């Protein structure tokens, strides 16, 4: 498929990790941040909250006239620890307390995905779940990690592709989902809309 005929793809997220995952998979999305007030969105469970946030972001961006005809992807992640939904920590103190509570335990990273086809008005959504087994960093290691600033910008106060990677003992499920987006789930959602993910690939270089 030529670049002229390839469908526009819009990512309704400012996450550089999600953008990076899509680019590594051969996709070239535009980025348009939704501006959704995440604190105003509520749901009974962490998985439902992640899905509601993803749907809210995708729907806001899909309604913008400038994206008409495009495929819009909305995602949001929360960590389910003992049934509590943990997003980005508010400050360093909260990030420190989170890590002391998580170490040596397991939580489930829930990422909601919503794909909106603005040409047809149809949308599909689902949540991907990955179990994360946390290691046991010392208080000193936690303090150093929090001082780096990284945990303040990621759901659950950790990420697999950053400085906290040495503190994660393992996962059960999709690695990309923990970083911010499940490519296998995205492929299935696109297929439900009648779009093959390979139709969205950018032309190979060289």
Describe the structure.
This protein has 206 residues and is an alpha/beta fold. It has one domain: Alpha-Beta Complex (Maf protein). It is built from six helices and seven strands. The chain has helices at residues 16-24, 46-62, 92-102, 139-147, 175-179, 183-192, and strands at residues 9-11, 30-31, 71-81, 84-86, 106-117, 122-134, 168-172. Strands 1, 2, 3, 4, 5, 6 and 7 form a seven-stranded mixed sheet that branches. Strand 5 and strand 6 (122-134) form a beta hairpin. Helix 3 runs antiparallel to helix 4. It starts with 8 loop residues before the first strand and ends in a 14-residue tail after the last helix. The model has no long low-confidence stretch (mean pLDDT 95). Pfam families: Maf (PF02545). One of its GO terms (cellular component) is cytoplasm. The active site is at 76 (proton acceptor). Its EC number is 3.6.1.9. Its cofactor is a divalent metal cation.
Q: Short summary of the structure?
A:
This protein has 206 residues and is α/β, with parallel strands linked by helices. It is 30% helix and 24% strand.
Instruction: Output the helix-strand order.
Output: EHEHEEHEEHEHH
Share of helical residues = 25-40%
Give the termini distance in whole angstroms: 17 Å
Q: Which structural class matches the secondary elements?
A: alpha/beta
């Amino acid at each position: 498929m030529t670049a002229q005929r390839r469908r526009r793809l819009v990512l309704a997220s400012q996450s550089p990790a999600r953008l990076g995952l899509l680019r590594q998979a051969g996709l070239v999305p535009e980025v348009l941040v939704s501006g959704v007030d995440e604190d105003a969105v509520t749901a009974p469970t962490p998985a439902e909250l992640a899905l509601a946030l993803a749907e809210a972001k995708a729907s806001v961006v899909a309604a913008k006239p400038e994206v008409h005809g495009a495929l819009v992807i909305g995602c949001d992640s929360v960590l389910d620890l003992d049934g509590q939904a943990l997003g980005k920590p508010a400050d360093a103190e909260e990030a420190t307390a989170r890590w002391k509570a998580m170490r040596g335990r397991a939580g489930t990273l829930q990422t909601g995905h919503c794909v909106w086809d603005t040409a047809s008005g149809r949308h599909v959504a689902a949540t991907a779940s990955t179990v994360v087994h946390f290691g046991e960093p010392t208080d000193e290691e936690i303090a150093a990690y929090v001082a780096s600033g990284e945990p303040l910008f990621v759901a659950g106060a950790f990420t697999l592709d950053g400085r906290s990677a040495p503190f994660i003992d393992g996962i059960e499920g999709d690695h990309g989902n923990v970083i911010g987006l499940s490519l296998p789930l995205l492929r299935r959602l696109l297929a439900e809309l009648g779009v093959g993910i390979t139709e969205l690939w950018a032309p190979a270089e060289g």
